[in-house]
Amino acid sequence: MLLTTILLWALNLSATKYILTHGLGPLPYATVRYGLAALIFVGLTLVAERTLRIQRRHLPLVALAAVALWLNQLSFVFALNLSTASTIGLVLGAIPIFTAVLGLLLGTEHPSRRFWMAAAISAVGVAFVALGAGGEVSASHVGILLGLATGATWAAYSVTVAPLMQTYSPSRVSAIVVPATWILLAVSGLPKTAEQDWSLGWEIWALLLFATLGPLVLTNVLWFRSIHKIGPAKATLAVNLQPFVAAVLAVILLSEPLSWLQIFGGVLIGVAILFVRRRAPSPQAT
């Protein structure tokens, strides 16, 4: 289950990149994908739990989580639109460092020499990924900055949603937060969505369905079942493979260039993750 989850997360970058380069704009893509996911999460939760009830005191956290996830999806789709899936995959490997930094700012993490060394290694790794980025330099570097924003906003979402996960099931949290995120995406993407030409090939619709059902819905179930079966420590170590699997798949499936500088940068990011990681992350929602 864990390896399936990692593979689906990794494939999502290549699938999304292909969709964005073959006729579907970033905002229409995010709007349709999250709209479909919202319907699925609400339906599954109502069948399993018969309710979507959230206590009033938790509504501010729901709102913050929805805003963080909205910003995360905007950063994600535009990062992939401007840069390669392999490059963004490597950059997203720094997410655990962002989570640790945010925990430090909120007072839930205490800085140590190990943490600062890992943060420095990760920063150097990202710099190498940026230096080795192929394609048009300006667009690629903007994409990398948006990739970093994707990591930072995912860390913010993970920290915000953690208290909700202690009270409600993952499916109920998703059934509330994902529809709220979809509303924000629909409103912000309305002009582009209205202009979108929906005469797309069947393969685009098939990939869009995969990107929704697999990396967004199915992994939500598999991830938590994996943690229950093998524990968070082993699950965390396996998740460290995801950025590299995503980069390799992008090179194979999309024939993207991947320089030695980028590979070296990705290795440094991976070393930093192993160096500082202490707890399992929340499930990815990219």
Explained architecture:
This protein has 13 helices and no strands. It is 79% helix and 0% strand. The chain has helices at residues 2-20, 26-49, 59-82, 85-91, 95-106, 113-131, 137-165, 170-188, 190-195, 202-230, 232-239, 242-254, 260-276. The model is unreliable at 279-283 (pLDDT under 50).
Shape: globular
β-strand amount: under 5%
Element order: H for helix, E for strand: HHHHHHHHHHHHH
State the share of residues found in helices, binned by percent: over 70%
Q: Count of DSSP helices?
A: 13
Q: Low-confidence stretches at least 5 residues in length (pLDDT < 50)?
A: 279-283
Please tell me the total number of domains: 1
What Rg, in angstroms, do the CA atoms define?
18 Å
Q: Helix- and strand-based class?
A: mainly alpha
Query: Largest sheet at a glance?
Result: none
Tell me, rounded to a whole number, the average pLDDT. Answer: 81
Tally the beta strands: 0
Distance between the termini: 18 Å
Characteristic terms for this protein:
13 helices; single chain; mainly alpha; 0% strand; 286 residues
Overview in brief:
The chain is an all-alpha fold. Helices cover 79% and strands 0% of the residues.
List strands and helices in order, with pairings:
Blueprint: H1 2-20, H2 26-49, H3 59-82, H4 85-91, H5 95-106, H6 113-131, H7 137-165, H8 170-188, H9 190-195, H10 202-230, H11 232-239, H12 242-254, H13 260-276
Helix pairs in contact: 1-4, 1-10, 1-12, 2-3, 2-8, 2-10, 3-7, 3-8, 4-12, 5-7, 6-13, 10-11
